[in-house]
Amino acid sequence: RVLGLVPKEKLPTYNVFYEGRTFGHGQPGMAETHRGVPLGDYLFQFDFGVVAPEVCEDIWSADGPMRRRAYSGGELVVNLSASPFRLGFWDTRRELLATRASDHQVTIAYANAVGSNDGLVFDGGGFINQNGRPVLETPRFQEGYTTAVVDLDRTLRLRTENTTWRVDRESWVTSGGQKVPTVDCTQVKTKRDTLAYPVPAHRSFFLPAPDTRRPARVALCEDILDALALGVGDYFEKTRAFKLFGIALSGGRDSLLTLLIAHRYAKRARPDNPGSLIQAFYMPSPYSSQQTRDAAETIARELGVPFQVVSIEEAFEREKAAAQQMLGETKLTPITEQNIQARIRAQRMWNWSNSCGGLFLQTGNMSEKSVGYTTIGGDLMGALAVIANVPKTVVMYLLDYLQETTGYEGIRKVLAKPAGPELAHDQVGEEELMPFPILDACFYLHAGEKLTPSEMRTALTAMFPEVEAQRLSSYVDRFVKLFHQSIYKWVQAPLSLHIGNLDLDRERALQLPVVTGSAWLRDA
Questions:
Q1: What was the pLDDT predicted at 14?
Q2: What is residue 523's predicted lDDT score, i.e. its pLDDT?
């Protein structure tokens, strides 16, 4: 039975959100009836107390509906959310709910959606907070329900004791605040006779409960891995277009992490034989080393993932000859030779995907993508970009963590070799670009904080005092030039999983024009 409908008032239209484009919003005082059902700004009186429903963003605004609904008698705020996962956001939600519950002297029950749609990952979980005191926190990245007993008389008692809240409410009433109407739902009977008074599980009202929080490093790594595995799995299941995953292993860090994330999902989907859900390929060229081949083969064997070696050497020579024929007297450039290798591999992955219904996973990271250290038609290609919102330093941080927790020899072998694409002799990514910590810092400062090159130099000098100022300045100039020249590349990238506020997803996050330049950023 539908007792009433309360529309969302705050429609976010920023970052990944575009609700204002599509939906109309509820308004204070809205009171309508549709098919006999109340629709509007309502409270609901049950035999246990007064419920104030709201939706997601309503709780994120200090000027949201909670204030007037609490002043109108609302005791239990029920917030239904679909808030996407972002790094570190779980703590922000917890703190926000505690603040709102304390400010408005209410009990808040907050439930978040779980699952992934397109590139957005919803981590689920929920909270109950009574007047600023945490009561319950539920697991994330899984479906389910959890219950807790709350004494709403305590919420009302704390209101009467809090003179600041009472004076604020009186001021609201005298200034013309309109009381929110209440729908009588007391005919709905609830069974509370068997409920016991909510006492602390650790049997003390004065001592803190045992701290069950994970260490910061474990929490960060497990959250990222769980979010990406959920994103990969839901995309695979909900599209219903694929039968298995396909990954081109290079023996490098990015493809290794992508494989481990896919395998993390596969262990849940097929616990008896997770490797049967994945096919890995190693496609060596004349520049591929035995070290990377051995690393790729080792991790595939440890995970039980089928592994094939398919050389591209013959195709590489053939494509070089064809390209040279088209160029005539113009010499084939070294960068073109590198890109040919990447494009042959991508073409073969697409051919495999078309024939067997495989989900071709793109393996590039956000940092190198931001400066165009990737090939259109090559390693930039795929059906789903798994780690495209993961900075390179975070990729390496995650692999260090996974090597420690799993002990996989394949991870150790990958980490033992300097990062590089092996498209030419002795390639090292940090030598061709800049040290990855500096690259990530440049990306954050310029794309995230919108700093000018001059401001970036100042920040980097404070951040990396051991690097000479002239070198840092050259890194800044190089980054800004490459970043603005590469926008045309990354707007052609496949759909990516979104796990942070700073992203290269042009549709949802970093909205920059393709036709742009860095000349306007030059210091006066």
A1: 87
A2: 61
Same domain, 410 and 336: yes
Q: What is the CATH number of the domain that holds 262?
A: 3.40.50.620
DSSP letter for 214, please: P
In a domain, 400, yes or no: yes
If one counts every other C-beta atom within 10 angstroms of the C-beta of residue 493, the result is 20
CB atoms within 10 A of CB 18: 14
Q: Is 321 exposed, middle or buried (0-12, 13-18, 19+ CB in 10 A)?
A: exposed
How far apart (Å, rounded) are the C-alpha atoms in residues 372 and 374? 5
Average pLDDT over residues 130-139: 96
306 SS3 class: coil
Question: Are residues 24 and 1 in contact, defined by beta-carbon separation less than 8 angstroms?
Answer: no
Residue 227's φ and ψ, nearest 5 degrees, are -65, -45
CA angle 456, 462, 466 (to 5 degrees): 110
pLDDT-wise least confident of 78-82, 161-165, 424-428: 424-428
Mean pLDDT, residues 160-180: 96
Alpha-carbon span 207 to 195, nearest angstrom: 24
Domain count, the chain: 2
> CATH code at 135?
3.60.110.10
Shared domain check, 321 and 234: yes
Interval 193-226: pLDDT, tens: 889 999 999 999 999 999 888 999 999 999 999 9
In a domain, 97, yes or no: yes
Asked whether residue 36 falls in the same domain as residue 88, the answer is yes
Instruction: Indicate if the pLDDT at residue 524 is higher than 60.
Output: no
| 395 in any annotated domain | yes
* Residue where a domain terminates, one of 429, 449, 481: 429
Residues 177 and 222 in one domain: no
135 and 265 both lie in a single domain: no
Please check whether residues 165 and 297 belong to one and the same domain: no
Whole-angstrom CA distances from 7 to 28, 198, 475 are 10, 32, 50
Q: Phi/psi class of residue 144: alpha, beta or left (left: φ > 0; alpha: ψ in -120 to 50)?
A: left
Domain boundary among 409, 429, 449: 429
pLDDT at 509: 67
Tokens of 27: 């308004």
pLDDT in tens, 1-60: 899 999 999 999 988 898 999 999 999 999 999 999 999 999 999 999 999 999 999 999
Whether residue 115 lies inside any domain: the answer is yes
For residue 429, is pLDDT > 50?
Answer: yes
| Matching residue, tokens 């900075």 | 391
Average pLDDT, whole number, for the chain?
95
The Cβ of residue 468 has, within 10 Å, a number of other Cβ atoms equal to 11
* Residue type at position 453: P
Q: CA-CA distance, 109 to 101, in Å (whole number)?
A: 10
Same domain, 154 and 65: yes
Distance, in Å, from the CA atom of 225 to the CA atom of 214, rounded to the nearest integer, reads 15
Domain, as residue range, for 65: 19-184
100 and 179 share a domain? yes
The confidence score (pLDDT) of residue 16 equals 87
Report yes or no on whether pTM surpasses 0.70: yes
CB 381 within 8 Å of CB 387: no
